[in-house]
Design a protein that fits this description.
Number of domains: 2
Strand order of the largest sheet: 1-4-3-2
Protein name: VOC family protein
Pfam family, one: Glyoxalase_6
CATH superfamily of the largest domain: 2,3-Dihydroxybiphenyl 1,2-Dioxygenase, domain 1
Radius of gyration: 15 Å
Distance between the termini: 35 Å
Helix content: 10-25%
Shape: globular
Largest sheet: 4 strands, mixed
Strand content: 25-35%
CATH architecture of the largest domain: Roll
InterPro entries: Glyas_Bleomycin-R_OHBP_Dase, Glyoxalase_6
Length: 122
């Protein structure tokens, strides 16, 4: 047994955990999410191992603004892709909104409830 922790999940607040989990399941092409009985906590597991993503229901959820110091993003996900154009079209088709497409090797999007995430050229 080790005293050194390992990362289990990154948890995102949202108004509808099942719907947001389904968005990221489609983006990442992962298996179906695990939904708690009350539906307030949903977990996506990486089928290759490693950390997953969890989604928790938050009453009166307020989405982050990007970029904004008044209502900051606080965190975001970086998703590596080998074909930026194909991945761009795919996430837009799933429901992402493009926030910044400056040619820096990455593009910034918002998920359906406003969390920023990036597609990063790998």
């Amino acid at each position: 047994m080790s005293a050194v922790p390992t990362l289990g999940v990154v948890a995102l607040d949202c108004p509808d955990p099942v719907a947001l989990a389904e968005f990221y399941r489609a983006v990442l092409d992962w298996d179906a999410p695990e939904v708690a009985e009350d539906g307030h906590w949903v977990t996506l597991r990486d089928p290759r191992g490693g950390a997953g993503i969890a989604f928790q229901r938050v009453p009166d959820y307020r989405p982050p603004a990007w970029p904004s110091a008044e209502n900051p993003q606080q965190m975001h996900l970086d998703l590596n892709v080998t074909d930026m154009e194909a991945a761009h079209e795919r996430v837009l088709g799933i429901g992402a909104k493009l926030l910044d497409d400056a040619p820096k090797g990455f593009r910034v999007y918002a998920d359906p409830v406003g969390h920023p995430f990036c597609l990063c050229a790998s």
